[in-house]
Amino acid sequence: MTGWAHHLIIAPILLPLVAGALLLLYDERRQFLKGVVNLISTLAMLCVAVTLLRFADGSTTGVYQLGNWPAPFGIVLVLDRLTALMLVLTSVLAIASLMFSLARWHKVGAYFHTLFQLLLMGVNGAVLTGDLFNLFVFFEVMLAASYGLVLHGSGQQRVRAGLHYIAVNLSASFLFLIGVALIYGVTGTLNMADLAVRIPAVTGNDRLLLEAGAAVLGIAFLIKAGMWPLSFSLLNAYTVAAAPVAAIFAILSKVGIYVLLRLSPLFFGAEAGTSEGFGSKLLLIGGMATLTYGMIGVLASQAMARLAAYSVLVSSGTLLTAIGFSDTGVTGGALFYLVSSTLTVSAFFLLIELIERGQDPAAGILAVTAEAFGDEDEDEAEAEAGVALPGTLAILGVCFGGCGILLAGLPPLSGFIAKLAMMVALFNPAETATGVSTTAWVFTLLLILSGLSALLAMSRVGIRVFWAPIEAVVPRVLIVEVVPIVLLLVLTLALTVQGGPVMRYMEDTAHALRAPTQYIQDVLSAPRVPAPGEGGAQ
Amino acid sequence: MELILSIAIGVLAGSGVWLLLRPRTYQVIIGLSLISYSVNLFIFSMGRLRSNAPPVLAGQTGNIADYADPVPQALVLTAIVIGFATTALFLVVLLASRGLTGTDHVDGREQQ
Description:
The complex is a heterodimer. Chain A is mainly α. Chain A has one domain (3-373, 384-524). In chain A, 73% of the residues lie in helices and 1% in strands. Chain A has helices at residues 11-24, 31-58, 81-103, 112-128, 132-150, 156-187, 192-198, 204-225, 232-240, 243-267, 280-300, 304-324, 328-356, 360-373, 378-385, 392-408, 414-427, 438-467, 479-497, 499-514, 517-524; strands at 62-65, 76-79. Chain A has a two-stranded antiparallel sheet. Chain B has a single domain (2-50, 67-101), classed as Orthogonal Bundle (Helix Hairpins), CATH 1.10.287. Chain B has 3 helices and no strands. Chain B is elongated. The N and C termini of chain B lie far apart (48 Å).
C-alpha cells in the first residue's frame, strides 16, 4: 500500500467528520439535501472500506502515522484484516439504516444526519486506532453520538431509557480511564503493539497492578458488549430506540467485542508468561451466562422489539464465549458469526418497525414522537415520501421468515454456517490434544438451545402477526423501507454462497489475531514518510 | 503526599459512587462529577508524584529524570474536556426527563 492509497487509511475517520460538520451548516428545513449528503458520504465510506479490505487481505498491516511520528511515540492508525472487516460491516449497516430512515424517521428529531455521521466516525476510529487512549477518545465520540441518537424521536420512554443508558455508559467511561491510567502507570506506554512487547517484562507487584488495570478496562468493554449482569440498560435502550437507530446500534455492542478480540490475544497471548489467557475464564463463564439469559429473554418476550434486543444479547454471549476459548478455529467461526448475526439483528430491527406499524404500541410511540416534535403533517409525509409497496404482507412475511432462519441458525442462510464453523472447531481443538473439554460440550449445547429458543419465539410471533389476525392490518410500507432489509438478508445469502472465500478470510484474520507477532513488528517498524525537503518520493 | 492524594481520591470516588446509587437524577449527576474528579486525579497521579522538586528547570542541562511525565497531563486534559461535555449532555437529558415525566426520580416515576 503505497502513495496516495496510503492516505485512504484515515479516510473512514475524516469522511464522516467532514460530512457531519457540513451537515451542521444546513438547518432542519433542508432535510432532503442533508439526506443526500449523508447518503453520498456513507456510500463513499463503503467504497473506501471495500478498497481497504482488499488491501488488508493482500498485503501486510497498513500503518498510518499521524503527524509522521513513529509508533511508540506518535499515535498510529492500524489497518489489518479485522479492522477492514469491521469497517465494511459498519458501512453496510449504515447504508441500510440510513436508507430506511430516509422514508420518514430522519424527520422526527433534530440533527439526525450529523449525529449519524459522527457515530460512524467514532466506530471507524475505534476500530482503526492502534493506541489505547485514542481508543477512549473515539469511544467517547461514538457514545456521545449514540446518546443523541437513542433520544431521537423523543418521548417519555426514550428519555427514560436514554437516561439509564447514558448514566451507565458514563460510569463505564470512567472505568475505561482508570484501566488505561493503571496500564500506563505500570508500562509507560499506550501503544497497543508496544504494550504487547512490554507486558512480558513486567514483574512482581507491577504485574498485579497491570492485571487489575486490564480487568477494569475489560469491564468497560464488557458493559459495551452487554455481558449478562451489565446489560440491563442496553436492553431498554435497544428496545425503545427508533428503528434505524437500533439497526445501526447493532454495531455498537460489536465494537466492545472487537476490542476484546483485538486486545486479549495481543496483551495476554502465549508470550505474556504468568498472565497468559488472563480473563478468558471470565469471558467463558460470563459469555455463557449472557447466552443463557438472552435465550430465556428471547423465549419470554412478548413484544418483538424486546425479542430483537435479547437476540443482541444472545449474539454477544456467543461471541464472548467463543473469545474465551482462545482457539484459532473457534475465533474464525466467531468472526463469521459476528458478521452474520450483526446483519441479521439489524435487518430484524428494521423489519419490526414495519410489521408493528399498523399495530397499537408502535403507532403510540410514533404519535408521541410526532406530538413532542410538533410534527403534525404525517399524512403529508406519507404522500410525498414515495411509492407504497404492493403485496406488503407477503414480502414482510418472507423477510420475517429469513430473519427467523438466521436467528435460529438453520440452513441455508449464513447463521447455520457460522454456528457449524464454531462447533467444528470446538470438536477439533487445534492447540491442545486433550480431546473435547466439558466447556466445549456445554457451549455446543447452549448454541443449539439458543437456536431452538429463537425458532420457537419467532414462530410464535410470526403466527400471531401473520396468520392469526382475522382482519389483517396491512401496514403502509414504502419500497425504500423494504429495500434495505432485503439488501441485508441478501448479503447473508451471499455469505452462504461465498462461504469458502469468506471463511478463508475469517480464518486468516483469526490466525493473525492469535499470533500477533507480525502485527507488532509491522506497527513498531513502520518507516516514517520522508518530508518533501528530505528528498525521495513516498 | 501520596497518602493525602490517595485519601482524597478515595473520598471523592466513594462519595461519587454513593451519590450515583441514589434515586434522584440531580444526585446522580453530582455523583458522576465527583467520580470524574477522582478519576482525573488518579490519571494525574499515574505520572508519579514528586515533592520538593523545582517547578521550572532553568539553566540545567537536560536530564530526563528531572522532568515530569507529560503524557498523563495530556491525558487528563483530554479526559477533563470529554467528561465536561458528556456531563453537560447528561444535564440536558436530565432536564428533558424532568419535563416529560414531571419527577426527578431516575425511573421517571415515584416509588410507591
